[in-house]
C-alpha cells in the first residue's frame, strides 16, 4: 500500500513537472514576442539599387527606425520580375525580422508560372505604403507631342513604333498590350532590365517611347523628355496637365499597390509593432517628400485592409494575364 501510494505521488509530481516544462517554450516565445525587436530587422527591396522603390523604401526605413527602436537593414535583391523578396521570406521564421516589399508582380508571376510561394497564403500583410505609378515617356525631340500622335503613328505603320519597358508581362507591358488590342494596332515592345538601361535607349533614339516609373520625372522636369500619358489612378499633382489612361478613355488599371509583408504566422503583437512604426514613418515629411518627387502618394491601409486589397488585385491580375494569353494551366 505504501509503495502504491508513493508511486501515485511520484507519478502526480511527474505530471505536474511535465506540464510545467511543456509551458516553458510558450513562455519563452511570449517573452521573445514582447521584447520584439531585440535585433535589427531585415527589409528586402526586390528592385535594383538607386531606383524609385529602393530610394523611397530606404527613406521609409530610416524614418521607421526611431519608432521601432532598432535598425532596419535594407537589402536589394533584384531579378525574377521583382519577386526575389517573396521567394526569400516565404519559408523564413515568422518572427518579424524577415520582411519584404510586395507589389503586383508578386501576384502576376504566380499566375504565369510555377512559383515557390503562394502569394495569398504564405505571407502576412503588415501595411500598404503607396502605389507604384508608371507612364509613357518620349524624348523631347520626338514628333509625338500627345498620346494621339503615338497611337496614330502606330496605326499608320504597324509594328514600327517601338516602346521599352522593364520586362515582359510588367504592368506597363500588359497595359499597352491591352490598349493595342483595343485600338487594333501593333506596337514593337523592347524589354529592358530596368529604367536606367531603357532611358539610355530612349535618349539615344533606339526606341520611340518608354513605359517607365514616375521616378523618371526628373527628365521631364529637366526638359529632356515628356509624358504622353500616366498610368496612375488619378492625375498627379506634380504634372496636373498630363492625362491618365482613364482620361483618354481606357479602363486599364496599371498602378501597382505596394507595401510590406512578412512570413505567414507572425504573432499579432509583432505585426502591430511593425505596423505602428511604419505608419508613423509613412507620414514623416522626408518620406512624403520623396514619394511626391517620385510621382507617388501616400496610400495607407493596415494589414487587414491591405490583405483584402491583395486578394482583389490577384483577381484583377488574373484577368489581365488571361487577356494577354499568359495564364498558366490550372490558374
TrEMBL record:
Domain of life of the native organism: Bacteria
Signal peptide range: 1-22
Keyword match Plastid: no
A Pfam cross-reference name: TctC
SUPFAM superfamilies attached to this UniProt entry: Periplasmic binding protein-like II
InterPro entries documented for this protein: BUG, Bug_dom1, TAT_signal
Keyword Signal in record: yes
Membrane-spanning ranges: none
Keywords annotated in UniProt: Signal
UniProt family annotation: Belongs to the UPF0065 (bug) family.
The name this protein goes by in its record: ABC transporter substrate-binding protein
Amino acid at each position: 500500500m505504501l509503495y502504491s501510494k508513493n508511486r501515485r505521488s511520484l507519478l502526480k509530481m511527474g505530471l505536474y513537472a511535465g506540464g510545467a516544462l511543456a509551458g516553458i517554450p510558450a513562455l519563452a516565445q511570449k517573452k521573445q514576442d514582447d521584447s520584439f525587436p531585440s535585433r535589427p530587422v531585415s527589409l528586402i527591396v526586390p528592385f535594383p539599387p538607386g531606383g524609385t522603390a529602393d530610394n523611397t523604401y530606404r527613406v521609409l526605413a530610416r524614418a521607421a527606425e526611431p519608432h521601432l527602436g532598432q535598425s532596419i537593414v535594407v537589402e536589394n535583391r533584384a531579378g525574377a520580375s521583382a519577386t526575389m523578396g517573396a521567394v526569400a521570406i516565404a519559408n523564413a521564421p515568422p518572427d518579424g525580422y524577415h520582411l519584404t516589399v510586395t507589389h503586383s508582380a508578386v501576384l502576376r508571376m504566380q499566375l504565369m508560372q510555377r512559383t515557390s510561394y503562394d502569394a495569398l497564403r504564405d505571407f502576412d500583410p503588415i501595411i500598404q505604403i503607396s502605389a507604384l505609378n508608371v507612364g509613357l515617356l518620349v524624348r523631347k525631340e520626338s514628333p509625338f507631342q500627345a498620346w494621339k500622335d503615338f497611337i496614330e503613328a502606330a496605326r499608320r505603320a504597324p509594328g514600327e513604333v517601338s516602346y521599352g519597358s522593364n520586362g515582359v508581362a510588367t504592368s506597363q507591358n500588359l497595359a499597352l498590350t491591352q490598349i493595342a488590342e483595343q485600338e487594333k494596332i501593333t506596337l514593337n515592345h523592347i524589354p529592358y532590365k530596368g529604367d536606367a538601361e531603357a532611358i539610355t535607349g530612349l535618349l539615344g533614339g533606339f526606341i520611340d517611347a518608354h513605359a517607365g516609373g514616375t521616378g523618371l520625372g526628373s527628365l521631364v522636369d529637366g526638359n529632356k523628355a515628356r509624358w504622353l500619358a500616366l498610368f496612375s489612378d488619378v492625375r498627379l499633382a506634380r504634372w496636373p496637365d498630363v492625362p491618365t489612361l482613364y482620361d483618354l478613355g481606357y479602363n486599364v488599371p496599371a498602378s501597382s499597390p505596394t507595401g510590406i509583408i512578412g512570413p505567414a504566422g507572425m504573432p499579432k503583437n509583432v505585426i502591430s509593432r511593425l505596423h505602428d512604426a511604419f505608419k508613423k514613418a509613412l507620414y514623416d515629411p522626408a518620406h512624403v517628400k520623396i514619394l511626391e518627387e517620385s510621382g507617388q502618394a501616400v496610400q495607407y491601409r493596415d494589414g487587414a485592409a491591405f490583405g483584402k486589397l491583395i486578394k482583389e488585385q490577384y483577381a484583377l491580375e488574373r484577368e489581365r494575364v488571361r487577356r494577354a494569353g499568359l495564364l498558366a494551366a490550372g490558374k
